[in-house]
Each structure stands twice: as C-alpha cells, then as structure tokens.
UniProtKB/TrEMBL annotation, chain A:
It holds the Pfam family ABC_tran. Residues 1-22 have a biased composition (Low complexity). It comes from the Bacteria. Residues 1-25 are annotated as: Disordered. The lineage of its organism: Bacteria, Bacillati, Actinomycetota, Actinomycetes, Micrococcales. The keyword Manganese does not apply. CDD domains: ABC_MJ0796_LolCDE_FtsE. This is Putative ABC transport system ATP-binding protein. Residues 30-250 form the ABC transporter domain. GO terms for molecular function: ATP binding; ATP hydrolysis activity; transmembrane transporter activity. It comes from Sediminihabitans luteus. Keywords: ATP-binding, Nucleotide-binding, Transport. GO terms for cellular component: membrane protein complex; plasma membrane.
TrEMBL record, chain B:
It is found in: Cell membrane. GO terms for cellular component: plasma membrane. Residues 341-413 form the ABC3 transporter permease C-terminal domain. This is FtsX-like permease family protein. It comes from Sediminihabitans luteus. Residues 19-306 form the MacB-like periplasmic core domain. InterPro entries: ABC3_permease_C, MacB_PCD, Macrolide_Exporter_MacB. Belongs to the ABC-4 integral membrane protein family. It is a multi-pass membrane protein.
Amino acid sequence: MSAAEVGVGPTGPATAPTGAPTETKDRAMYEISQLTKTYTQGKRTVHALQAVDLTIGTGELVSIQGPTGGGKSTLLQMLGGLDRPTSGSITLDGTDLARVSDSRLTRVRAETIGFVFQGFNLIPTLTAQENVETALVPGKVPAAARAARATAALEQVGLGDRGAHLPVELSGGQQQRVAIARALVKAPTVLLADEPTGNLDEQTRDEIVDLLEGLWKEQGLTVVMVTHDSTVARRTQRRLRIAGGRLTEI
Amino acid sequence: MFFTYLRRELSNRRKQSVIIAIGMAVAIALVMIVNAVAAGVSDAQDDVLDSVYGVGTDITVTQAGEPGGRGPGRFDVGSDDGEASDDGGSRSFDQDQLAVARGTASFDASALDTVAGIEHVAGTTGTLVLSNTSFSGEVPDFGQMQGGQGGGPGGGDAQSAPTGGADGAGGSAFSIDAFTVTGVDPAADAVGPLTAVEVSDGRGLETADNTSGDDGAAGTVAVLDSTYAESADLAVGDTVTVGGTDLDVVGVVSSTSGEGVSTGSDVYVPLALAQSLADLDGQVSNVYVQADSSEHVDAISDAISAALPDVSVSTQADLASSVTGSLSTASDLVSTLGLWLSVIVLAAAFGIAILFTVSGVTRRTRELGTLKAIGWPNGRVVGQVAGESLVQGLIGGVAGLALGLVGIGVINALGITLSGATGTGGFTFGGPGGFGGAGGAGADAGAGPGAAGGGPGGGGGGGPFGGAADAAQSAVDVALHAPVSVTVIVVAIGLAVLGGLLAGLVGGRRAARLRPAEALRSVA
Ligand SMILES: Nc1ncnc2c1ncn2[C@@H]1O[C@H](COP(=O)(O)OP(=O)(O)OP(=O)(O)O)[C@@H](O)[C@H]1O
Ligand SMILES: [Mg+2]
C-alpha cells in the first residue's frame, strides 16, 4: 500500500478519541500531492521529500514519526508555508501554498497557522505576555484588545500569573505553554508542532500533550505534531511515518 | 510593541549599544568641532577682511608697485641729511618717511569715477594707504646705510639697536618705528575701512576735517586704532608725527568685529591730508567697491579690469584666500587634518555600527525567523532591525551633540587668538625682501600694533629695515570663536541618522533574506 493511497480520504470517526470534534472532519484541511523537496548543497542533493501524497482532514490530530533526517521538519515546513516545495502541490483550505505570493503566504501564516517549536522560540527580551502579543502584530489588533487576548490565552494555558516574566524566568514547560498561547491567541485553524516535547522531561511532556489534546478537542483545531516519542504519538488518532523522504501510514 | 521590543533589544545588548553610541558620539562630536572651528576661522577671516577692507566691500582695486621703487624700505642718508654732529665723527638722525605702502603704488583718483560709472556699482571710496617709518639714531659718518641690501640684520628684532651697522662697519645705533597711515574720505560711511570701526574715544573723522586747515587745506588731525594707541602710549589730545608733521589725535577707534580684533590701520587721517603729507595729490592707493548685489560682483570685477588695465582687482573671495598668518595655518589645519580625521573616525564609527548590527542579526537568526514564521511581514521584521539601528544612531548622535557642544565650549574658553594679514593683490607688503606677511619675526619691531601674534616665523632676511616694514603691515588679531550654528547641529543629527540608517540598511537587508524556516533550526 502506497503512502498516497493511505493518505487520501478523511479518517473515519471510529478512530477519533471520544470528544473529538467530528462534524467538520469530512472536509480536507490539507491536500498534498506529489510533493517533492530537494535541497542542493554544492554538488550534493538531498531528497528531503519524495513524491509525498497526503490528505489531512479538518480537525484531525496527526503525529509524524521517523528517523532523524527523514524529512519530518521539511514536511512541517511545507505544511506551515515556511518554505516552497520543489514540485508538487499542497493546498491548505483551498489555497495552494506552493504557488501563492509571498505576501499571501505570510498572511496565511499570520491568520491560519499556529506554530509550536521544540526550542520554544520565545523572544528572549520580551515578557510572556508580550511574546503572546507578537502573534497579533500582523493582524494589527489594537493594543488594548491585544493585551486582553494575550492575557486570556495565557490563562488558558495555566500561566495567567506569569505574564510579566521573561522566558529565562520560566521553566521549559512554562515556556512551551507560553509558546502554545502564542500559537493559539490568533485563533488559527491549524496547529503545527515540531517536537513540542523534545526538550522536556516526561512529566512536563505529558502535561504539554494533555494541554494540546485539550485545546484540540475544545477548539476543533487540525493538529500536526512531529515527534520521535512513541508515547506522544500513541495519543494521536492518526500516526504517519516519514523516512528517506517517503511517507507511510502506521 | 515596536518600541517595547526595540527598547528591550537595545538594553539587552547594552555593551554593543554603548560601544556603538560612543563611536558615533566621538565621530559626531569631532565633526561638530571641526565644523564649528572651521566656521570660527572663516568668521575670523571675515573679521580680518572687514577690518582691512571695511564691511560690505565686494571688490578692492589696487595697483602693484614696482620693486625697488618708492617705498619705506629705503632711507637716503646723504651727507647733507640729518643733523651732523662732529663729536666722534658720527651723525645722529631723526627722520620720518611717509610713502605708499611697500609693493603698492598709488594711482590717479579719477579711477574712482571710472569705477563708479560701472553698472551695478552701489558705492565706491578711495583711500591712500601709507607707511610711516621713522628712523632715529646714530651712524658713523659715512652714508652707507642704504636699504635693499639682502641679508642684513634687519630681519630680526629691529628695536634693539644693532651694534654693528648693516654694512658691518660698526658704531651704528638706530631704532625704527613704523606704522600704517590710511587716508580716508570721512564722508564714506557705506564702504571702505571706516565701516568696520567705531569710535571708542574722542571723535571720528568728519567731512569738515578735509578743509579745516590753513587756507582750506585739510586739518592736521588723526584718529588712532585703539590697539596702536595703547602700544604707542597715545591718547586723544596727544600728537602723532606723520611724515614729519605733528597731527592732533582727535579720536580713537576700535573694530566692530568684536573684542580682540584690531582695525586695518594704525592711524587714520583725512584723505586730503594724507595726499598732501605724502606729496601724492590726487592719488589713491585703494578703491573699495560695493556691488548692488553679490551676483554682479564678477561682472563688475571684469568691467573694472577692462576699464583700468593697470590695476589689480580683488573680490572678497580672492581676498579671503590672501589672508596669511596663524589664521591661514589654522584654516589649512582645519580643512585638511580636521577633515580627514573626521572622515576616518566617522567611517570607523559607521563601520562599528554596521558590524554590530549585522552580527546582531546573525545571532538572532532563529528569533527573527520565528517572527516571520508566525506571520510577521518581512517589512515589519526589517523595520524592527532598522529601527533599532536608527535609534542606536540617534542615541549616539545625542551623546555626540552633547560632547561636541562641550568640546566647542572648551575651545572657545581657551581664548585662542589668531593673527591674520592680507598678503597678495599688491595691497600690502609683498614687496621685494621676502615679506610675504607671515612674519612673527618682526612682531615686536616697536611700532607694530602687536602685530602678527603667533605666526610661523616668516620674513627676515630682507633689507636692513625689513623688520620694520613687516611690522608696519596691517596684521589683525582675532580671537577664535567657534560658533554653534544650526548647521552644526543639523549636521550632527544628520550624521547620526545617516549612520543609523546605513547600519539599519545593511542589517535590514540581512534580516530580509532570512528564511522563516530558520525558526525550525535546532537549538544552537
Ligand atoms: N536547508 C537545508 N539545506 C540542505 N539540506 C537540508 C536543509 N534542511 C534539511 N535538509 C536535509 O533534508 C533532510 C531532511 O531534513 P529534516 O530536517 O526534514 O529531517 P528531520 O526528519 O526533521 O530530522 P530530525 O529528527 O533530526 O529533526 C536531511 O538530510 C537534512 O540534512
Ligand atoms: Mg527536525
């Protein structure tokens, strides 16, 4: 069975965890076909993605596993509109991310996609509150509304009292919560996470996954999470594996 | 968010910020100081020119004298001159000589009418600039004291009586007193040397002085420059001997250019008197011309040259470049060393700012990539980086402004005095004998109005009376005042903005090229 075949079509409700949003699942959030990404470094070319076909339904919680250098982050970059594929197409909610203009792609990232990174990627000079607010800068949200929404988002991740702290004053788990608040404050439709628990201990890892799962359930988000941790992957309704640039369903 | 982020970022990398600010501040302060001093030197040159040529003079007309011609450098001590005393076979002398300043010649005053008739000429006046040299002393009883002998001792301190004569015969003792006498038209108050003076004691010259003497001749009155009056210990009511005639000192004038500036001449007398004393009736040596508008200066200058082929015509610009003395040294120093130093330090400061900005962007690759990844438009990220540089530059600019103002204040507080003399155009004393005018050598030659303060020791080595002739040259002392002008402040702020923009541009370009995918880079 090829990756293309398994990836196509919405996932049945039977595999969804209880309480997961089901009503929107029939529509595809992502439709990817023959997606290829080739990096050229001098004479060496790396086929990071090779003819990947994949459909991710709206409201799905998907994990991507695989060996290091397998192409996980590269696929996530394509999903997040951070880079353009070498060939193939990738549509997000009807928008072809491979072909839209740079400014349109920037707007998609600003409005539709929330990112969570392995290294948290908070701005070190800004407080937790301000870090969350940065996500609302592209939307030109007025300052007062911005502050209110950021505060609410921090409360949602359980850090209502830590808004004034700088990232260095927070633990890893708390920093990742701030990063999640930053990703969610703009009410995106897609949440992409690259090894969100990679830098955390087991207990914190479980707390973060609990948080993400809770948000997924509450907000009807489509979540794609790269992880090398099978414990984390087992908690997702759909598990993909990518190795050597080729995608397979687990 | 923009300012919060900017402020945090700058205070976070405080060390770099301080280094950039210091570099920028030093460079800007230097530029300000050089700029202000240059303006001060230029003002001083204007003061010198005003003192010598009067305020509002656009063009000066002079005529060069023939070398070796009538000039103060020559005394004729014949056997029938002076008071012969038979004791010991020596002669004692007390002789005054009044002649057109060395290297210049007088010309017919009809030139005035010629010039006045030229289109766009708003005003003219003529003066007769004379040099009075009095010689007193004793020489052995043979008349070899001839001027014009190169290599004589006169280049040095002419006040001390050389024990050996110029001819090496020995037994001579003499002293020389020289000062400038300018015959002016008392009625000329719009153009000419009197426009730059004000009466500080007694009265100025009046039109009546032209005819107040015997038989309608000019009155024997004189007005003294205050600096000269002081050095010669003269005051209103005293007499001053010019060309052997005693004149009543009726007034003392000082320069309107400000404290510490001497006027262009030591003694002012009515033009008619100067003409008769020097036996130069109907002659002038200088014509001052005022144009009705600065744009006509060149045309007038050409017209004068055409109408009066023998004269030399100098515009203010020509005259400015003819200023010599410590003033011109300062001017050269400011325009070369000052300029290059400013350029180098400025380039270094800009370089540091750019380097730190670029390294800052490189260090923040993941941070800036993350902002792009979460949807910050490229322009917003670039703006943030450029804004940081700009503010950084402005901080340096403000610090530099303060530093520069302090520096300029210090320079003004030092009370530096510059000396300037005008040395070309035949107006003054560039005659044979090598007195280009830069002389400190003859500075204390007795008669001089504290002439030629700290000039590089030029002069010397001309005729035996070279020292005296040099002192007679109208050197003008000016206190250096470096002004803080709007231009200086605008230049300072402008450079700060330029430096900030430059660094921001380079840093911003780098930030613009960052891929949003850099956000996914593994933690360094
Ligand atoms: N910008 C790039 N330039 C060149 N090669 C790249 C670039 N990014 C990724 N690659 C290569 O593409 C391949 C896939 O990389 P990718 O980062 O997607 O792997 P990954 O599965 O995320 O690995 P890891 O688990 O280590 O994060 C690797 O061989 C990598 O070296
Ligand atoms: Mg990766």
